[in-house]
Amino acid sequence: FTSPKIAPSILSADFMNMERDIRVIEQGGASFVHVDVMDGHFVPNLTLGVPFVKQLKRITDLPLDVHLMISNPLYQLPWFLECKPDIVTVHAEALDESAGEFDRAIDMIHEAGSKACIALKPDMDVDVLKPYIGKLDMVLAMSVYPGFSGQKYIEGTEDKVARVVEMARAAGVSPLIEVDGGLGANDPTRAVAASGCDVFVAGSAVFGAEDRAAAIAAMTKVAQE
Ligand code: DX5
Ligand code: ZN
After folding, report:
1. Which is catalytic among the residues 21, 39, 137, 180?
2. Is residue 1's pLDDT more than 70?
3. In this structure, what DSSP letter does residue 113 have?
4. What is the CATH code of the structural domain delimited by 5-224?
5. Domain boundaries, the chain
6. pLDDT by residue (tens digit) across 54-104?
7. Close Cβ partners of 45 (under 8 Å, ≥ 6 residues apart)
8. 198 is catalytic
């Protein structure tokens, strides 16, 4: 049994007071800082990029969980890896499997000393991960269509989590499983926790709360029920 990890998404933080907001989640018991990188192409929204991630790394010792929602990730990966993020997530939909890009992305991340994660949009079949499950440190099951915070959890994501757990068990490995979108101290968090989720991303539920530490604590409690 491992205790649930809460990964607040700074997309919902105050960009003009980022250091202050990060201190609050550090003291509030966050396990990772979830960093949503969007390129305005893979997803409709545009958020932050390499210079921002580099500076974040300087102001916090919490592990950076960098979620790349970008097209052609192999091209930009070396730049992000130079920032030494702890975990780097690339979307399956952005990789050309027949060209060996899943392996290439995972290997590039590992060679740089970071942990590798592949994310799946809500419509992507978890079976796409089968050949790679043995070398992934984490799998991210999106519970909303990526692009914006504050969306509603898509029912059924908990079943995908269960299928990833099953796939990993069959392969004799135990990567972390992360869920992202619509989570808080709510039923979706309870449901994905029951299915085997380890890392719970929360944007609006944490940074939208008056007391962010209390929001993290409440969510942790629900995930442990
Ligand atoms: C969505 C992002 C999420 C988002 C989560 O595209 O990947 O990390 O910021 O926000 P909430 O928790 O508000 O759904
Ligand atoms: Zn995210």
Report:
1. 180
2. no
3. T
4. 3.20.20.70
5. 5-224
6. 999 999 999 999 999 999 999 999 999 999 999 999 999 999 999 999 999
7. 38, 147, 148
8. no
